[in-house]
């Protein structure tokens, strides 16, 4: 069973700051998901990545498969980025159609 | 942009009652999932569904739970006799060969 650990659990930042959220997992995987959970509870998929780096707007996700580690960065953070950020992984060798194992999430609060 | 929808958004029920949570996945998606999140805890996998049958289920998904795809669009989760500990947010998701797309969730409260 894959153990997914995120750090920090809670993060408070000032608007404009660069944010980094980390995720590590115990068993090798083929891909990793980053998700955002809004205060109302809804979940949005941000990235699925297998290697290297992906960028979408102010969000950047990186992964090092060998080190079993991924990071989510937010540049020029804004109060609307306040949410819970969750990493999730499928079983080893699978990328589609498989259960995801979720981390505990990182609660991000960006103050104006 | 296509999205996964779920109904109802909130459901309150008495212990022992049956509930059906409904989901409409994205139309060309092949895989369907149910997850749940108990308040203050992490999201947990319940079941996945492919080609009109369960492809995987977790230890949580016992005989009280069932899933169905009654027509070409809906995907339902039934809890036969609800318990207090079934109170949670239930998320439906769907995918093709990549990212899973989540619905907004149904918040279930069992009294």
Which properties best describe this structure?
heterodimer; A: mainly beta; 6-stranded mixed beta sheet; 0% helix; B: 111 residues; mainly beta; 7-stranded mixed beta sheet; 50% strand
Summarize the structure.
The complex is a heterodimer of chains A (112) and B (111). Chain A has 112 residues and is mainly β.
* Structural class by helix and strand composition of chain A: mainly beta
Main beta-sheet strand count, sense and barrel state of chain A: 6 strands, mixed
Annotation field: number of helices of chain A: 0
3D shape of chain A: globular
Q: Count the beta strands of chain A.
A: 11
SSE string of chain A: EEEEEEEEEEE
Computed over alpha carbons, the radius of gyration of chain A is: 13 Å
Protein chains sharing the most extensive interface: A-B, 23 and 28 residues
Helix content of chain B: under 10%
Plain-language structure description:
The complex is a heterodimer of chains A (112) and B (111). By secondary structure, chain A is mainly beta. Chain A has strands at 4-7, 10-14, 19-25, 32-37, 43-49, 52-56, 59-64, 69-74, 83-89, 101-102, 106-111. Chain A has no helices and eleven strands. Chain A is globular and about 40 Å long. Chain B is mainly beta and 111 residues long. Chain B is 0% helix and 50% strand. Chain B is built from no helices and eleven strands. Chains A and B meet through strand 5 and strand 10 of A and strand 4, strand 5, strand 9 and strand 10 of B.
């Amino acid at each position: 069973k894959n153990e997914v650990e995120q750090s920090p659990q809670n993060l408070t930042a000032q608007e404009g700051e660069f944010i980094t959220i980390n995720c590590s997992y115990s068993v090798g995987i083929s891909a990793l998901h980053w998700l955002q959970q809004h205060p109302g509870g809804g979940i949005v998929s941000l990235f699925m990545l297998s290697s290297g780096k992906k960028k979408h707007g102010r969000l950047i996700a990186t992964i090092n498969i060998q080190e079993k580690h991924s990071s989510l960065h937010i540049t020029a953070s804004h109060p609307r980025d306040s949410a819970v950020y969750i990493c999730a992984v499928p079983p080893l060798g699978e990328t589609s159609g498989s259960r995801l194992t979720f981390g505990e999430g990182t609660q991000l609060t960006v103050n104006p | 942009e296509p999205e996964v929808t779920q109904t109802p958004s909130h459901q309150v029920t008495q212990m022992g009652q049956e509930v059906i949570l409904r989901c409409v996945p994205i139309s060309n998606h092949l895989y369907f999932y149910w997850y749940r999140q108990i308040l203050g805890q992490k999201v947990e996998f319940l079941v996945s569904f492919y080609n009109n049958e369960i492809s995987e289920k977790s230890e949580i998904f016992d005989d009280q739970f069932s899933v169905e795809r009654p027509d070409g669009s809906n995907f339902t989760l039934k809890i036969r006799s609800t318990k207090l500990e079934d109170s949670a947010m239930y998320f439906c998701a769907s995918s093709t060969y990549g990212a899973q797309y989540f619905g907004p969730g149904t918040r279930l409260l069992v009294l």
